[in-house]
Amino acid sequence: MKDSVFSPSEPMASRNEVFSRYLDYFRARLVGHIEKLPESELRRSRLASGWTPLELTKHLTYVERRWLVWGFEGQDVLDPWGDRRDDRWFVDETESKADVIAALDAQARRSRAIIASNDLATPAQPGPRFKDGEVPSLERILFHVLQEYAHHLGHLDVVVEIALADRLAQD
Predict the structure, then answer these.
(1) Do strands 88-89 and 84-85 pair parallel, antiparallel, or not at all (unpaired)?
(2) Does residue 52 lie within any of the structural domains?
(3) Residue 61 lies in a domain
(4) Is 57 a member of any domain?
(5) Would residue 4 count as lying in a domain?
(6) How far is CA 57 from the centre of its chain?
(7) Torsion over CA of 43, 45, 49 and 54, rounded to 10 degrees?
(8) Alpha-carbon distance 61 to 115, whole Å?
């Protein structure tokens, strides 16, 4: 994935396509930021909360997986919380930038297929994600996933700005 040329606000054929295109746009922005950062910044935290850009990328992959595959489809997911260890985001040292981006790409393909093949009013399937109470519709789930991306991309914008400013100051 690379920064997308399209604007997610262009007219689209359906609301499903609107959600899909916005997710594509946010993913492209995320990967664009990761690609801009020097390798030394990918596993470094610039914020008091302690997360790193690679951890954020893996987290957003798992957000999609938890909400769309495990949640909406009600599918078994081996480790739906695999982006966490000891109650914080985690990327193993053996996972490369390419590995993390490839996992995001694979989840993006799965998410696009789910969005394209379902009506937005379709409720989530019963399963381990939504055991009690009312299950959300696909539309409600997609609003949540988009909110997660928007929220975290704002954080990443700041981290990239700080990292690149520090690098310029050192040069």
Answers:
(1) antiparallel
(2) yes
(3) yes
(4) yes
(5) no
(6) 6
(7) -30
(8) 16
CATH no. for residue 148? 1.20.120.450
Cα separation values, 168 from 31, 75, 81, 164, 165, Å: 21, 47, 37, 6, 5
Quote the number of domains for the chain: 1
Distance CA 52, CA 135 (A): 32
What is the extent of the structural domain holding 49? 15-170
CA 158 – CA 103 distance, rounded (Å): 24
Instruction: Determine contact, residues 61/31, Cβ cutoff 8 Å.
Output: no
CA–CA distance, 12 with 128 (Å, rounded to integer): 34
Name the residue with tokens 């950062």: 37
Query: Structure pTM?
Result: 0.92
Tokens of 131: 């055991």
pLDDT in tens, 97-139: 999 999 999 999 999 999 999 999 999 998 888 876 789 999 9
Tell me the pLDDT tens digit for each residue of 36-84.
999 999 999 999 999 999 999 999 999 999 999 999 999 999 999 999 9
